[in-house]
Amino acid sequence: MVFAKNDVDYSLYLVTDSTMLPPGTTLCSQVEAGLKNGVTLVQIREKDTETRDFVEEALEVQKICKKYKVPLIINDRVDVAMAIDADGVHVGQSDMPIPMVRKLLGPSKILGWSVGKPSEVETLAKWGPDMVDYIGVGTLFPTLTKKNPKKSPMGPQGAIAVLDALEEFKAIWCRTVGIGGLHPDNIQRVICQCVSSNGKRSLDGISLVSDIMAAPDACAATKRLRGLLDGSKYQFVDCKLNETFPTTASIQSVISQVSSNRPLVQHITNKVHQNFGANVTLALGSSPIMSEIESEVSELARIPNASLLLNTGSVAPIETLKAAINAYNEVNRPITFDPVGYSATETRLCLNNTLLTYGQFTCIKGNCSEILSLAKLNKDRMKGVDANSGNMDINLLVRATQIVAFQYRTIAVCTGEFDCVANGIFDGKYKLSSGTAGITAEDLPCMIIEDGPIPIMGDITASGCSLGSTIACFIGGLNSTGNLFDAVVGAVLLYKSAGKLASTRCQGSGSFHVQLIDALYQLFHENKPESWSASLKKFN
Ligand SMILES: Cc1ncc(COP(=O)(O)OP(=O)(O)O)c(N)n1
Ligand SMILES: Cc1nc(C(=O)O)sc1CCOP(=O)(O)O
Ligand SMILES: [Mg+2]
């Protein structure tokens, strides 16, 4: 059977490994369980098997694949692929060179290549469309399956760089599968975030080993994976830009919802911010809990209107932070992420990047330097954790805010003398392969909030962190039909106006702290956004 290359479905690509079979299962039983429940492509990869046994196993697996009309790819061994007339071969950077493999295989067989960086894409593009048919993009996340890995995990951002290179070098024929450490807890995020910057291409599928091969119930494991690929909100069917813009009327409605829903706002934050953040939360009619207890995050996330503020100035262990992200993602409750001092040190860069690939965040808030770093538009490394707001170019800051919003599918907030809020949460559904239907970062709605300089804001501790508390209150207090963009913009507008009001009433930085809480309390409970001093305007 010859599979037309354009008909290959890369969506759920099983790679075998018989060293991890659970008791009572066999290589063939796991493969058949996968094929019965939605695996669309199989690769036999048995790194420790003698050739004779490998050929016999490959023939067995080939019989099953033919039964389900699914192509069989052979890992590494071009000779075995030719000997059994398999449907294709997958080779890596240290295996037989692609042109040689293609010469042996002939033009009709499927040829896959492992790619970990843009320069390898440039090479395959130069070879042209008759060489590489698809690439395995990885290693996405840490995995124990591949022994002595030569590549460190690249995360979704690394995959985006490879997708961008495919667009840049016009390798339009080349399909892509993500691979490495893929499991139900990160697949939706990978599909959602791994989109080229021009919006035209996302991954064509995911490829995995242990989630199925090591599963005691491979049918159930495959069904779960298939469900995540097909039925989730991350499946693009008709990508629509969210064209609604916040108004003072819609912000007034947000405050009414927060007031009546009284959200529980869990703070995992730095010690300096804890007390002030709790008081800001109370001033906004919400209930703070400053808990870093890993064993209770799932319970807290399930409390109605729960909202998590994750400020990476916290000294909580990374496993606690991951558990909290998982807990709130699992029940679809909002997380506000504040990557404090994003790239100020290697430690912070590594921590923040790990968390950014681990979870889906409703809002990512940072100062100018943090957002410019996240968008990779910063020229020099941040100094310390204070914002270098200065007289930044508004176009640069808006662009950076839109890039962060687009790449992390989030509402991005960039704070400074003026604040930018960009909405990267699309309507519609995601679809493998087709990206965001051409929508790109600069298409995203962006609001600018201004109230002139408030220098004293920088003279107190936790003023920036407490905007995070405010955002977490607003998005946590929304009804299920509430508009997240309205809520985040409303939080930023309230916070800016309260800061200005407090600066006119205080005698110095000491009383400014108190006046800021009073102003937040007053403006929130009056709920008259049309009278607030800060201005709100669309950027685009
Ligand atoms: C789909 C897919 N992607 C990547 C790989 C890795 O291939 P390679 O780099 O040759 O490493 P080994 O698998 O040979 O250890 C793959 N096999 N399949
Ligand atoms: C075969 C393979 N190739 C990788 C690459 O990065 O090229 S990672 C990998 C193993 C993936 O196994 P699991 O799904 O169990 O994490
Ligand atoms: Mg190989």
UniProtKB/TrEMBL annotation:
GO terms for molecular function: ATP binding; hydroxyethylthiazole kinase activity; magnesium ion binding; thiamine-phosphate diphosphorylase activity. It comes from Saccharomyces kudriavzevii (strain ATCC MYA-4449 / AS 2.2408 / CBS 8840 / NBRC 1802 / NCYC 2889). The keyword Nucleotide-binding applies. Condenses 4-methyl-5-(beta-hydroxyethyl)thiazole monophosphate (THZ-P) and 2-methyl-4-amino-5-hydroxymethyl pyrimidine pyrophosphate (HMP-PP) to form thiamine monophosphate (TMP). One of its GO terms (biological process) is thiamine diphosphate biosynthetic process. Keywords: ATP-binding, Kinase, Magnesium, Metal-binding, Nucleotide-binding, Thiamine biosynthesis, Transferase. Its cofactor is Mg(2+). The keyword Transit peptide does not apply. This is THI6-like protein. In the C-terminal section; belongs to the Thz kinase family. In the N-terminal section; belongs to the thiamine-phosphate synthase family.
